[in-house]
Amino acid sequence: MKFVRQDVVSELEAGQVGKFDVGFYGRDDLDDRSRHSAALTRAAAQKSYRVRYDPSKFTLAVGDETFRVDDLEDLFRKFRARSLVIDATTMEFPEILYVLNAYRMQHDRPRCGFFYVEPEGYKQRAPNMSVVPGNAFDLSEKFLGNLQLPPFTRLLSSSNKAHLVAFLGFEGDRLMRVLDADDGYFYEKVSIVFGVPPFQPSWGLHALMANSSLLERQNTTVLYCGANNPRAAYMLLKDAHAGMASGRTNRLFVAPFGTKPMALGAALFRLDHDILSPIFDHPVRKPDRTFGVHRRHWYEIDSL
Amino acid sequence: MTAIADPFLNNRADYLSPASLFSQFIVPPFFQRISIFAGQGSVRILGGRGCGKTMFIRYFSHGSSFDTSRDDIPESELKTVGLYLRPDTGFCGLMIPEWLGPHQAKLAFSHYVALNLLKDACQSLASIGSARFANGPIAVGDPLLSPALAKQLGLTDRRVSALEVELDLKLVELESWVSNPKHSPVPSFVSFASVLPRFAQDVAASSPQLAEFAFRAFIDEFENLQSEHREVVCDAIKHPSPRLVVHIAHKKQAVVDFKTSSEERVVEGHDLRTIDLEEELSWEGEFELLAAELFLLRVTQGGGKFDCPLFQPGLLHDQRHLAHRMSKPYRDQVLRCVREILPSPSAASISREVIEDPPLRRRLREMIQKGLVLQGLDKKVNPDDLISSTHPQASIVMGALLNRRSQIDKDLLSQYHAAVANPGDSDPFFKVGGWIDNNLHGCLFHLYAGLPRRPNINYAGFDRFCMMADPNLRFFQALCHATLSIAYKRQSGNEVSGQLRVDVETQASAAKQVSDKLFQDILQLGSHGSKLLEITGRLGRIFEAFNRRRSQSEPEVNHFSIDNADRTNLSSQAELLLREAKIWSVLYEAKDTKNKADYDIAQTDLILNPIYAPHFSISYRKRRKVTLRAPHADILLCQSTAQYEVVLKQLVDPADQDPAGDDPMTLF
Amino acid sequence: MTFHVPEAHIGLFEEVERRFRLLLSKNIVTGITETQFDMWLSNLLTEEDRYLGARLLENLTFRSEQMVGSAIDHILQCILPCELRRLGVPIPSVDEFIASLERGGKSHPVRFVEIDDPKGEKPGKSGAVLMRELHRLGGVNTSLTCLSSAIDKQPVGVKCLVFIDDMLGTGTQMETYSTVHQLKAISQKHHLIYCPLAAFESGLAHLAKECPWLQVCPVEVFGESHRFFRSDPKQPLNWAIDKTNTVADVRAHMESLCQRGGIRSPAAFALELLVGFHHATPNNTLPIMHVSSPTWHNLLTR
Hints:
Helix content of chain B: 40-55%
Structural class of chain C: alpha/beta
Helix content of chain C: 40-55%
CATH architecture of the largest domain in chain C: 3-Layer(aba) Sandwich
Strand content of chain C: 5-15%
Radius of gyration of chain B: 29 Å
Number of helices of chain C: 11
CATH topology of the largest domain in chain C: Rossmann fold
Radius of gyration of chain C: 21 Å
Distance between the termini of chain C: 35 Å
Oligomer: heterotrimer
Largest sheet of chain B: 5 strands, parallel
Number of strands of chain C: 10
CATH class of the largest domain in chain C: Alpha Beta
Order of helices and strands of chain C: HHHEHHEHEEHHEHEEEEHEH
Distance between the termini of chain B: 30 Å
Strand order of the largest sheet of chain B: 2-3-4-1-5
Structural class of chain B: alpha/beta
Shape of chain C: elongated
């Protein structure tokens, strides 16, 4: 696949990206930018469908249909398209990955466009509140049992350990939770990726210093990737892959906990390279956590 | 160049190769006290984070038991060849009925365990081949598996070496199928409970020296397995085979049932013996010795020098030398050495510090003054007259005594003057169990809490570090790491000039720093981390508020309890969070020992992990508690902040408290 | 009350010092040695000095070598293909554009111009460094770079001249540069794109007004909310950063520190920013960070 475009577009330009056969979007009711982005996506598509992944059943609901994630050929057979437009704002990483993976099995791989809309701002959180990564079911006994996304799963063992590339959002705690549970056993090497240059100026020293727990860890490297540059995320993973020496650390895992464009880059890399194994913690998004609409991004690849 | 503090960070068992693990493991004293694996049955090893559970298990795995640096290995070790499996819980999370279908899920898991343990079993033969046994080396060769086992595993070449190669292929096959069951061939499953013993049998048959060859398999992180998978393991526990014993390890409280696939249950005591690592490590004074030895070992690794001839790192790793390490001269010398490097100020010297340091003295004076006002004595008595530089302890507790609303002895003042003039065994201040014994520590914590800027030396010293960290060696090492980092920055042990010694203020700063960080880290614990953080914060604030009471009428309140009879009134959410708090060692549970017999008035004590004491400037010693009724406990555990604030005011009389500063905002 | 350390932030300095050292040791902040850091810290004598120092460090936006590399990637992979297409330059794909930059060659439609100091006063200015980083980190072929003196000698086939700068502050420097090199006239022959890695809002407005023929595409934009002495919107007399000290008191303390150290304090209309780059410090960053004197050690290098 080739990265054709990585543009910032005005509202007018967003309406002129062309017509795509099929559009997909996720939870479009959460906040201003979700509504806006989903609307842009629907406007650019002949037909569009809502997508939802259920991690407890391993199913992808698309419109009125439901598919198990190991039956995704049925998806493209049902919704044939030579071109796709995807709302990366409202779709979660697994949803994006599964949909793209489905269409990759189509003989004529479609070309794809992606919308991503930045919010104007994030609501200030009350001091004691934090967004808790939820799961579809209570995991107090089966903690983190479903981080894996079949069929992209790899098995880890004492002789098959992983280099984890973790794209980081503002707070490191999503990643810390994963690393803490692992306790240094399977993820032998960790690369933390900060989104610099960021959407809006951030990642001042204050924010970096807040991640000192992560930074103090052993076997941890720090890398940077533009927050709205999927191609950079893709290339970063390519370098990580190239840098994997033979030996015990022979698996490459990715935790796409940063921005959606970074997650998109990771998804696209996975489509081209099955060496990569994504993990995901299925956070429960709260409504109105963001407000307003800031910039619109339009990404395009020539074919899956 | 390694800084002297650096080795204290390398404290995860998982960073160590099997070979180096042996040389890092310190045999804990309890090895002498309890028989760990005697008898045939399965054992479960309980322990929270940081108490060395994985290190402990891996010490008994073949890589360590047959480590080449060990000599004179008894041949009886061949009867208990240790295999280790830490399941990939992410992958195992896919071997569930929803993904693989109900029947396949359990078979797949047993197959997964079998393949991994067989791999380790093949490697164990290599370890044995290079081990230095007491009666000379044992030639293992490349044993042939029996035709039956070979058939079960689908092998044409029956040699163990061929099996090793085949196992990797089988794992790939399993991985492909689990990832994508509809598009990969189903493996032919084997059950670990049947192949492992057969393997052992075949090895035993291959050579007379190996006649008693048998396995003990350790399955770590048992609590993170799916319930169906736990059943598979429990089946093997309930029905052991002569050549395979299955042991498990998990966090306390984290597993409640031990169901098997049938109606039977694994019965604690009968089928499964428990080793509670935390309890064993905390046993009377043993933690101090272990911590001290660990400290000296790490300092040695960092190039530091100290004077302790009896301490030799080489003696730490083998049970043989335990008797020597438990001897009084050794213990005394080691502890003395560490106490010189990390000195603890005595209560008496801290008291002197209070008198001599102007801000602290001012604080004491104010406390006394407020007490005099309360008692209506402020016109008659000058607070300075009650501050004695010769017997500061008495002055300090006077501060509390004077602030008590209850009728104080009208002779208090004269008793004070008498005690200061001539302290003895019978005056109410200095006698055993007198006012100083009961109140001094509480008052010291109270006085220091009012000066948050100042390093609180009530937390300084090796002994105090032990009290706060016990039984968590990881916490202990964190305290040492911070202490040495602050004191010596990036210097290596060789560069340190003069005697290795860290002053009390530095230690106090380190304790605060570590406590603050570990408090923030609560956020990462389990799936309820943020709730746990909130609960800990709330509890801490309650105890902080108690600590700020001038009266110190109940000094050192730092744990709470709920009447057992009242427990049933707790909501299920509250119970869940209590359990989570215990699983992650944020709270410890201790049975009330005084009222054991009478269940109704008996209580369960819930103690805030003392490592968080410096963060809240409260005492770490388990002294007094506050009893909470179920509704209050419920509010504390899961209701809103507003409701909590109400409870807080009800528990601690605001009038009695020194005004708090603003709630310390988290800096990061 | 004068400038003081608020009760709730008593331990801030120790925390920040420790964490800053961590960032240094992990090469997240680059171009500063630990010794330099220690020397800067030794400037801070009182508790209040140290508290102010901690706030300065916390609010510093530092772009290390690697981060600058990522910013260059952003320019090459996101900004330029998009802008060039808008100007009618055909770009089949980002991948091909990047490949073409690596190949270079006379027929390439883009040239990157090394911005020099228009007054010719400062040698080795960031312009040269950025060109080098463009090549080293961004992979741009050196045949596509040119000096400021060669701006008017570019062939007609060059559709676009790209100027890469580290900081756009008030905009006056770029305005002067434009005048010296007659960019307005040049804009008739080639499109002009100016990409500062960091830009202040007022600078963007200034250039939009004074140099409308220059297409300005900043990587990161800073505004009022990044000024060090900004006030709390709810209580305008108070300092936004800790909501306790007054803005006047903070300025006064800064002033006293500068006087003591014999360094200049922020000018009256200064931007009061705290931005630093691995290779240089913009001159609109607070002087206390980068100026030195016989009695004052600098942290950042100008």
